[in-house]
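User: Hello, can you help with two protein structures?

Assistant: Certainly.
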Amino acid sequence: TTHFTLSMSVVIASIAVFCLFRYGWIRLLTFSIFLVYSIQLLYFLNNPLMGHQLQAIRIHNFGTVYLFVIAAIYSLMALVRKSESLADTGIVGSVLLNGMGFSMLLALYVASFYKTDYMLLMGSVSAYCLLYSVLLQLKSDWKITAAFYALFGFVTMSVMVHGFYDFPRAYFFLALQSFLVVSMAVWFRSKFIVVMNTLLFLTIVLLYLKTSELIDGVNISFSLVALLTARLLNWKRDRLTIKTNLLRNVYLIIAFFMVLLTLHHLIPERYITLSWTVAAVVYFVLSLVLKNVKYRYMALGTMIAAAFYFFIIDLDRVELVFRIIALMFLAFISIGLSIYYSKKIKKKQSNEPESAQQ
């Protein structure tokens, strides 16, 4: 009875997808998704409509295999060609509905049968979704569905990472994964993925700072990923057709604070002011090389932070010789920046009359 019920749900899903490709029956497909996942849920709850006690089944009887097959069958809907009879909302809504039904039942199975060994399940889902998203990007007329599958693949990858590495070590790999997501979004030309990843990255950073002990490797990974992501978004902004600097600014702000925090936690106490000043110099050099004014703002902000730290913290507890070195270095860099900007302003002012005369 069990395998007959689950097999029938596979047959229903197959017929619905076939009718979609052959006749464009999107409403039948949507109804079948509700029906099939309801059958799956009733099976998981021990078929209470058949008079059985309402409870989770004790043996899954390869229920996850049937669940995966059903989700894979329904995923084929994203390959149907666009036509007048198929509205965007119909296909996209059905893809989301399939994802919600699959996610709900997968969560129930994991909570009941795979509490400690769910990594293989999540890894399989992640691999399928990411590979299928590439296929959709190349072949599908519904490009947004590729973004959905890619995001779901990365979410399940995050769950898999958590299974292998407990927090806070998992944050290191989540940071690297974030850069992978943005790289894939650039290839997909998907602003949707970039926006969602930005929100997730910001959330992960805040959770790490709020709930976990600081680890140098994780701090460095967040700092570098934020800087590299901001640079990648600026480099490929035309490909993503991003007209606002908001997303890049979010990553630069995260990088600014994470670099300060990373150096504060990594460098010996007496060298913190010095290290922040060096970071300001690096930002300034980047602004010249990349011709990007935002790195100058970061350099200025880092110099201000170094100055405050020196006068509030270092003067009280750092040895005299290190105070002198830090102060001289800070003063030297400040004077150098002042001279540079003074010359730049004079050059700009001298060019304005010439351009006006022309």
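That covers the first. Now for the second protein you mentioned:
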Amino acid sequence: MKRSMEKKKTSIDTSEVEHFSRLANEWWNPHGRLRMLHRLNPTRLTYIKDKVCETFKRDHLAHQPFIGLQVLDIGCGGGLLCEPLARLGANILGADASFTNIEIAKLHAAENNLQIDYQRTTAENIAAKPENQNKFDIILNMEVIEHVSDPQFFMNSVASMLKPNGLMFIATLNRTWKSWILAIIAAEYFLGWIPKGTHQYKKFLSPKELTRKLVSLRLRVIDHVGMTYNPLTKQWNQSSDMSVNYILLAQAHKLQTQQSSTSILDKKIIR
């Protein structure tokens, strides 16, 4: 029998993996080349915690309100989100296609006595295991979709692992003239806030485009928020302005209501 010469389909863009692998030693330096991500982290963590506690009826003031929740952080990098969520009690699988990113994440977690399951792998490889179907209460898809080669294939894999009623946080950049000027021209080439070549404008997705992908996967958008940066205070804030950075919060339908139609918020964004 002839062995198939077809390569297994993947959403990985190797040039993107190589780019972030070169930055691996910068992940835990709050003043280094990834400093903008460190500044963004508290704001997005606040949003994640608020929405998780609201959805799963957890005590926001509890020391570990995420106990018992299964979390997948896809494209986890050095673990900037995994570690604080582990401290909140979550059981976390942190996945990244970069070997160096995962090694940095493992080392930092060990130094801080945190139990996090870090794996060098891809969304499609995790999804291929039957035990991971409908497994996770929460999936973090943060600043990843604009770096993959096939967004729809990537989203198909990720969505299949979300439990009924589970939450997926998708953070990315809008495809607008403003995002091109601020996120690429200014941030990368003029101000040097982030490494050159981090973003490709053609890979940005509008909230409307992203919502359509989610709806096609039987997910409904239940919330959305913009993230804006104040250069004077050097702080990120939640905002109604989604013209550059934004987060969509999607929820998987419950099993008994999977035939539900598009939600009101979905329709508002798609329109």
